Amino acid sequence: MSAPIIDQAARVFTDPSAYADEPRLHAALTHLRANAPVSLVDHRPYRPFWAITRHADIMDIERDNELWINEPRPVLAPADADDLQRSLLDSGMGLRTLIHMDDPHHHKMRAIVSDWFRPKAMRAMKARIDELAKRYVDEMLRIGPECDFVQDIALNYPLYVIMSLLGLPESDFPRMLRLTQELFGGDDDEYRRGITPEEQLPVLLDFFAYFNALTADRRENPTEDLASTIANARIDGEPLSDLDTVSYYVIIATAGHDTTSAAIGGGLRALIEHPDQRERLRADLQLMPTAVEEIIRWVTPVKEFMRTATADTEVRGVPITKGESVYLSYVSANHDEEVFDNPFAFDVGRDPNKHLSFGYGVHFCVASALARMEIDSFFRELIPRLDAIELTGEPQLISTTFVGGVKHLPIRYRLRA
């Protein structure tokens, strides 16, 4: 067994601004993969954790969901935010989503919505997704020849898809977008509502107020939408608690669109910055399935999840004690030289593409098929109509330690009707 390694480059994971500075981030990750693929990070305000940067190690950890569990620390957060989350859960007001749970409860909760995202359901939704993709490319045409692609288009298209699936009124979409940005943007100066966890708590309370009212309505007046499925679900014959119901809505309503928005915004940026790949895709739309996977790898909207050891173990020969947590760096795994040929090349025909952007194992993203379909439909509509496109300013990225991507993408373009 090796002695623990503490590499200062691993502090990058505790700095939200690093994800808004990609050269700096990737320099640190490349160094860690080569020199300290399992590195101890002990840097306030976070509790200590082990940073895991190799693709194979992350897959091994995610594969063994009995040794490595999500509770009590599923994502990286400052110690005071972790403490507040635990106290809120004790009071019935914290979030306990699918990412916070372990089997067998996780399996039972996941099954509630799984039918909505199976291939048969996705095929039934295809025409509607295509229609919405056309609607938003038409919107680009209407507001052109310049726009902030992320704010004007990429945020709104997936939002419309998931909110429609839930059955929420279109008048509420802006409110859900703002709350999502505040929830995931707690480290970003533009998006956050307050600085301390206590100052950001009203975001959570706003979600609870909205979704508690929705639950009551769907239980009294059930419909055919996803919101009704969640509101009226039962586990072992018992209805979901208010906490579990609201938490379910929150994960669907936020992660269900924010990650896809990040992929579409980052995907267009990649196609602008790699015009040879854009032209390659235009010349052969049969490449779209591999292009979608490459966009998802390239952007990696979910930057990390964490797991906690249930017994003494080791990773790559490094001892890890029961109760210690590991940080799974999906961004690093998706650029691992041992898995991807020329990982810093954007290649719309990359195959195979074993990216970990949707996770792996029992926690593999339940809505991955929907995300793929939305990205595919949007670029199938956009690329053939796009005669010219360029950046008119520097892309700006979200400061985060969890979920994010490009938040401003100023572009000039010429589209066909």
Automatic annotation (TrEMBL):
SUPFAM superfamilies (alphabetical): Cytochrome P450 (SSF48264)
A Pfam entry, by short name: p450
GO biological process: cholesterol catabolic process
Keyword field contains Repeat: no
Entry-linked InterPro entries: Cyt_P450, Cyt_P450_B, Cyt_P450_CS, Cyt_P450_sf
Keyword annotations: Heme, Iron, Metal-binding, Monooxygenase, Oxidoreductase
Protein name: Cytochrome P450
Family: Belongs to the cytochrome P450 family.
Signal peptide from the UniProt entry: none
The keyword Ribosomal protein is annotated on this UniProt entry: no
Cofactor(s) this protein cannot do without: heme
GO molecular function, one term: heme binding
Organism of provenance: Mycobacterium novum
